[in-house]
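Q: Give me the 3D complex with flavin mononucleotide.
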Amino acid sequence: MQKESSFKIYFAPLQESTDYIYRSAHAKFFGGVDKYFAPYIVRQNDGTVKTSHLRDIKSENNQGYLLIPQILAGNSTDFIFLTKILHDNGYNEINWNLGCPYPMVTNKGLGSGLLPFPERIKSILEEAIPKIDCKISVKMRTGLQSHDEIFQIIDILNEFPLSEIILHPRFGKQLYRGEPDEAVFAEVHKTLNHPLVYNGDIESAENLDRLNLLFGDINTWMIGRGILKNPFFPNLLKNGATPEIEEKAIILRNFHDEIIHKYSTLLCGSSHLLMRMEKFWSYFCFGFPDPHKTFKRIKKASNLLKYEAAVNENFQRLRNHEEDECSPNS
Ligand SMILES: Cc1cc2nc3c(=O)[nH]c(=O)nc-3n(C[C@H](O)[C@H](O)[C@H](O)COP(=O)(O)O)c2cc1C
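A: Here is the predicted complex, encoded as C-alpha cells.
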C-alpha cells in the first residue's frame, strides 16, 4: 500500500491549458494530485454560460479524480446562479476566483478587481452563502494595486464559513512580474482563521523544501505551471522519484498522444488542433533537452504531417539526450 503523504498538492487552474482533456490525461498517466481545479466559469452579458465552460465541468468528462470547479462572479446574483449550476452538476465544493489579474476581467470588478472593495466582497458572501448548499473556498491574490488590500479583507473572510483560502502572494497589477511575497503570505497566515494554501512559482523540490521550512504548518501547495512543465512533478514531490528514461519517454508520449487524439475529436479543423497543441507544448517543452528549440519545431509545423514529424524528432532527441547523459563516457 502506498504511504499517504503528509502534504497535499492541488493542480492550479489555467484557462486554455488545464481543461478536462488535459486534467483527465494527467490524472490517468501521472497522478499525485489531491485536487484538480477547473478554470473559472463566468456568466456572459446575455446571462448564459458558454457551452465550452459547461462541457469542462460535466461530471462524465471528469471521471477518476477530484475536481473543484471555479466561478468568476462580481455580484451575488451571478454568484448564486453559477454556484447553483455547479451544484446541480454534482459539486459540493466550489472555488471563488478573487485572483484573475487581467484588465479585461478586473475592469469589470471581477477576479482581483474586487479586492479593493472589501464591502462588496462582504455583501456578496452575506447574500450568497445562506442561499447555497455547498462549501466555498477562495483563490485570491493579495490585492489589485498593492499587497495592502488583503489586510482589509481578512476579517471579512474570517466572518464566513469558507473551506479554505488559496493565496498567490502577488497583487493583480504585477501580473507575473517580481517574486511572490512570502512575508505578506506569512502576515496573512497569522490572522486568517481558515485553512491556507500557498500558490505561486513552485517549480522544484528545492523550492518546496524552502517554503516548507518557512511555513512549517502549511501542508497544502497549489501548483500550476510547474506541473504543466513537468507532469511528473506531483509524484516526484510525494515519492521522490521519476521513472527511468525509457519509461519516462513512453509515459510522456502516451500522454501527448491521448491528448491530441481527444482534441482531434473535439476541435474542428487542423489549425485549431495545431494551435491547441502549440499551447500544450509551450509548457511541455520544458521536459525536453533545449526547450526553446523543442518548442520552435512545434511552432514551425504548418500542418499535421509536419507536426507529427516535429513531435517524433522531439521525442527522439529526448531519448538520445538521456542516453548520452547516462552513458559511461559522458
Ligand atoms: C494563462 C493562465 C491562465 C490562468 N487561468 C486561471 C483561472 O482560470 N483561474 C484561476 O484561479 N487562476 C488562473 N491562473 C492562475 C493560476 O491558477 C496560478 O494561480 C498562477 O499561475 C500561479 O501559480 P503557478 O506559479 O504555480 O503557475 C491562470 C494563470 C495563467 C498563466
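A quick observation: The chain has a mean pLDDT of 95.
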